[in-house]
Structures are given as structure tokens and as C-alpha cells.
């Protein structure tokens, strides 16, 4: 395991130092940072989220009739509240270990009894334990080439059929797909691609429009900046904005790097300018992660954090006129809110938010194949260092690191982009504090393609377990979502012609 982590750190340094700035802005969703999935799952364990662990022999390539290789797909099932013929809530697994998402998707658990629902969590191929080629799965595009959203959706559709065939009383059960983040995108696309399999979908924080030509690349980081300005005002955002030039000034010299290493209390001293680039990216990702998990109560989704963590972070950054080194010291204290809430962390590891698990490696491959999500910053309308979006530069980085060429417009071609009118029964929920709000469906398209906005919500807050400190906006959002779920199920049950096994 130690050797693996060393290799990962080397891989991170290679990624961030070898390619253009566009490649450094690969889209990332919240995920556990450790390579030990079991430990990550236990961080936010849900005491009443009990499930059976099962496996299904899934076909490797659903779109090739010559090849018949298979692999074991893991899925989790809870039938405690299920009533025969009752609905199945199917979670479309993200880019990570499915147990982590099962423990963090409280909406399904909290409402299972009300709906009499069976809960199923399907693991996405190439993540968690669902590795089609075992330890070889990440060796090269020869093995990774089967890691696509299209193959994953087919996995889910076939797994649902298997469940309805093999679980007594489930044959006519209506199935509703649910997911958050990338899982939310999959939930929406599953309804679009397989409307015969799922009667509807709840797609939370699903940026299905964060693709080339659909959403301005600068919107994502502007929302992060707005979040910090909302809770910390101009002193907070100005402090972060000024820090980049100070770091840049210290970056070229050995003495400057020593100062940076000391001020940021780094576990490993910065030896080169490339190391400082990693530091810059680490800081940038920390601010982004704080925006994504800016929840109204203490939570441990990514790290143990206080309620409204951005407000606590910005309390450390209220004097933008500090001398350079003192300002960096304040930045380090602010970063400590994210990485050192217990006060026990002796030093910071800049690889902590970099590629540190198979889940991250798998997502980076997807980001270099079909999931091309343009992001950019200008340093003026946002608080980040300027980085332009240039597809050619991005593609070059992908070719060198992943040995594949990204398909710039494939997702829009495959799933329709903004052309959603032909679809039905999808709830798109988005929180205004979530950077991914930029690429979400935030206006209702029809009476059954509904946008639900959570004014003070961060990343898929509505899918989390209910909490006594939930804000009125998320409570209302969940009630709206449940209204539509009940409506879809009632309509399905009234229509006997739909009770035919596909």
C-alpha cells in the first residue's frame, strides 16, 4: 500500500507539471480521498443503513456481439421497508465505492418506509470492488476502454431487470432512479435512454449541461467566489485572490520555496517549481471543495467540517492588507478549517486532494474520453489564478497521460444537451451554493421535467440525511420531490399496460 501511494504522488506531480493550464482544470466531483474504501465508508457510517451485498455477472461490452467476457458487478440491497410490488429506489452509482454513497444518500433511507420501497445501490463499473479486469483494470486503455457512461447505464438497466426477475414480488415494481453529482447525471440519462426500465429519476446536482458550447467555462469558479463573498465579504475573496501573486513571487527560488513550506506547514518541503504548482492546485481544490460541502450543519462528507464551513474559513481572512507572509499564514489557517478541524494535524500533505484512489484515476480517464467539462478562471471575476480553457491543450494532456483523445462534443451528441423536450419524469434539483449549479438544469422544461432550486443548498444537499438544522429551502425541496415520486408511482400503478416485464 505504501508503494502504491508513492506512485500516486509521482503521478500527481506528473499530471500537474507536464501539461498546459487547461489540463489542470479537469472537472472533479466530491469523492473519498483515501485508497482504502472501507475506511472512507466508515467516516460517515449510517447506523441504520443496513444492506445485503450481492453480485451480478455483467457483460463486459454490451454493444459487441462477438465478445462475451463478463465481470462481477457489486450492488447493495435493503428490503426492510419494502412491500411486495412496491417501488424500487435505484441509486445509480458514482465514480467511487458504492458503500460510501449508500451511507451518504439519506433521502432514500429516510423515505423508504413512507413509500414501502426497496433500496438498491448499483456500483459503477471500474469503481469500488467492481473491477472488470481486477488489478489490471487501470493498466492501459486496452482495459479502461470499457469505462464509459453508456456501458454503465446498460449495466444498470440489465441489473434492474435481473432484480425484478429474481426477487419474488418485484416483477411489476416501478423503478425510480436516484443519484447525485455524476450519479445524478446517470440517473437522468438512465431515464432518457431506458424509459422502459425506470419510470422516473431524481437527478440531484447533475451538471448535464457542463459541456462544450452549453455552459460558459467561467461560471463554475464564479459561483465558488460568490459563496466566499456571501459568507466572508470582500476581505475574504481579496485575501485569496492576492495570495496567488505572493506564491508566484516565491515560487522560483529555493529560499522562497522554504518560506512557503514553513508557512503552509507542509509535510514534505517544496523542492521545485513543479511542487509549488501542486500546492497551488491543492489550495484551489480546497476552496472548491468547501463550496461543494458548505452545509448548514457539521458533516464529514469529505472531511470533518463545522456547520457553514465557508463562514468559519472566511473568519480567518478578514484582513486583506496583511504583509505578504502574514497573509499566507492566514491562508494556511483558513485551509486548516478543511484539513485540521480537530487541531491534531501536525502538517499538511498537498497530495491529499490530488489523485489518491482508483476512483480518482478512473474519473480522470473518463474526463479524458467523454466527460469533457470546460472550466476556466480569469482572476478578476473570480478569486482564482487565471487559467484559460483550450481544448487542444487539454487533449494533448489527455493523450500524454491517459493515451486517449477526448471526444469534445460526444456527451451532447449522445444525450441531447439542452434538447430535453422529448423526455419526461425527471426532477433536476440544484443548490445555488453548489459550483455545479452552473451546469445544471435550473429551469423547468415541462410539467414533468422539473427544476427544483435550493436557495441555500450546496452539492446534493437534498439527498443527504435529514437534519434538525436543515434550512427551509431544502425541506421544501424534498417535499416537492416526494410529491412527484408519489405521482409517478400512482400513475404507473393505475396503468396496467405498464405492468409488463420488459
From TrEMBL:
One of its GO terms (molecular function) is dipeptidyl-peptidase activity. Cleaves C-terminal amino acids linked to proline in peptides such as angiotensin II, III and des-Arg9-bradykinin. This cleavage occurs at acidic pH, but enzymatic activity is retained with some substrates at neutral pH. Homodimer. The keyword Iron does not apply. Pfam families: Peptidase_S28. This is Lysosomal Pro-X carboxypeptidase. PANTHER family: LYSOSOMAL PRO-X CARBOXYPEPTIDASE, PROTEASE S28 PRO-X CARBOXYPEPTIDASE-RELATED. InterPro entries: AB_hydrolase_fold (IPR029058), Peptidase_S28 (IPR008758), Ser_carbopepase_S28_SKS (IPR042269). It is found in: Lysosome. Belongs to the peptidase S28 family. Residues 1-22 form the signal peptide. Keywords: Carboxypeptidase, Disulfide bond, Glycoprotein, Hydrolase, Lysosome, Protease, Signal, Zymogen. It is an enzyme of class 3 (hydrolase). It comes from the Eukaryota. One of its GO terms (biological process) is proteolysis. GO terms for cellular component: lysosome. It catalyses: Cleavage of a -Pro-|-Xaa bond to release a C-terminal amino acid. Its EC number is 3.4.16.2.
